[in-house]
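Can anyone check this?
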Amino acid sequence: MSRFYVGSEVGQLKRVMLHRPERALNHLTPSNFQELLFDDVLAVERAGKEHDVFAQTLTEQGVEVLLLHDLLVETLAVPEAKAWLLDTQVSPYRLGHQFASDVRHYLNELNHNELAEILLGGLSYIDFHITSQSIMQSVHQKTDFIIEPLPNHLFTRDTSCWVYGGVSLNPMAKLARQRETNHLRAIYRWHPDFAQGDFVTYLGAEVCDYDNAMVEGGDVLVIGNQTVLIGMSERTTPQGVEALARGLFEHKQAKEVIVLDLPKNRSYMHLDTVMTHVDKDTFSVYPEVINTSMQCWSLTDKGDGQVKVSQNSNYLSAVEKALGIPQLQIITTGGDSFEAEREQWNDANNVLTVRPGVVIGYEGNHYTNEKYDKAGITVLPIPGDQLGRGRGGARCMSCPLERDDI
């Protein structure tokens, strides 16, 4: 039986899920990239090669790499999973009864690999070679999408996050990403590696309207010692934090959730864009956002499904107390104020820790990487000229499935 457990941010990383940029990036254009939450169109082949370096770096460090595309293909081989995904992703309310029926019939005839490519990468009207009795084809341009591409699947951290002995299937904040969660619901429910797994689900198991309870995995740091650090950001709401905390407490997987109030700004869209855990007692932070003046709370279990909320004096003392560390070591973004702002934008603080004191980060963040080195943190550099245009670094692009405690 496969083991799924993430006990920290810095313990030995053993297994991780990535998504190599594919068809979805080919559908990214100057007219739609903002709607799809990117800052630019990407050179697709170069982005793929950069991602290959990332995956290879992990493999060389002894980490097993699973690819989302492959997991989805293998999940679609389970008839119940395929039927559920087609019904969910191509619903009558999305496309109308007649057209949804025609599209599902077309997709059902594809092989599993072709179907996975379309579910992940999108389908335009120009590529749909069936004439439907629906009015949908008549009122859309050929380049409109029947199924919108999901280029943000690249950032596997956000859609689901593993916290100790369970997983949160996250209700995503942005419309462009909300369908992603159904792919993970299907994989975790039906894929042979997960179907028999011993884990619980804290949030998001059902397909329903989660209203304002939104969580994205980039805001969730599993810092160890039964403690979770969560940022309330542009993408994660107080309602979502409370819902996840209640799930953690109900299943006895955490004793405390520390909550930080972040600016609601795309530059700092998730906590891990301004703060990551790089060694047992060391964090990387962007000090313009992460500092002792920011609001910080602790959530604990009152019992009977109730959550106790306590205000903390500052985040440093709260984390030190939770981890039993006398004094945290803080590495701030490198360079002067201008250089630090640029490097934060280019994900200098968004590194993926492979094991204590060893991280993967973009090679272009020279000033911050130099500060890591001087602090005794080894940086395994990867290229990110293209990948970084989606506003995500190595941590954003990885969903740990198995990692040791501190």
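Reply from J.R.: I decoded it. The CA atoms of residues 109 and 115 lie 9 Å apart.
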